Amino acid sequence: MKNVALYVNFGRPKARETAERVVAIARKHDVRIGVCEGGAEAAGFPTECSLDEADLMVTVGGDGTLLRGARLAHPLEVPILGVNTGRLGFLTEVEAD
């Protein structure tokens, strides 16, 4: 895996912190990463990778964030890993911690 697209719900508590951890892990493993949508540049997040070149999309938020990310990733057949920073996280695969 060389490219990861990150889709973050910055309105959620812990989402920014969790997204920063995802970016750090990706960079540690020499994976290009970029936030798709949501004003990444203004928020200080990398834009090294876009969704159309991604091998994986990581969503950070809750189930709604995962569903919004799925709408973007599905036409490009990009697999998704959902990180839950919300309460229930019925659809997301992993917890932020």
Short description:
The protein is of the alpha/beta class and 97 residues long.
Chart the SSEs and their pairings.
Blueprint: E1 3-8, H1 15-28, E2 32-35, H2 40-43, E3 56-61, H3 63-73, E4 80-84, E5 94-95
Parallel strand pairs: 1-2, 1-3, 3-4, 4-5
Describe the structure.
It is built from three helices and five strands, in the order βαβαβαββ. The chain has 97 residues and is of the alpha/beta class. The longest helix has 14 residues, at 15-28. It is globular and about 30 Å long. The two termini are 23 Å apart. The mean pLDDT is 85.
Task: Provide tags for this entry.
97 residues, 5-stranded parallel sheet, 3 helices, 5 strands, globular
pLDDT < 50 runs, ≥5 residues: none
How would you sum up the global shape?
globular
Strand content: 15-25%
Q: Helix count?
A: 3
Tell me the Rg in angstroms. 12 Å
Count of β-strands? 5
Order of helices and strands: EHEHEHEE
Q: What can be said about the biggest beta sheet?
A: 5 strands, parallel
End-to-end C-alpha gap: 23 Å
Structural class: alpha/beta
Q: Percent helix among the residues?
A: 25-40%
- Order of strands across the main sheet: 2-1-3-4-5
Mean pLDDT: 85
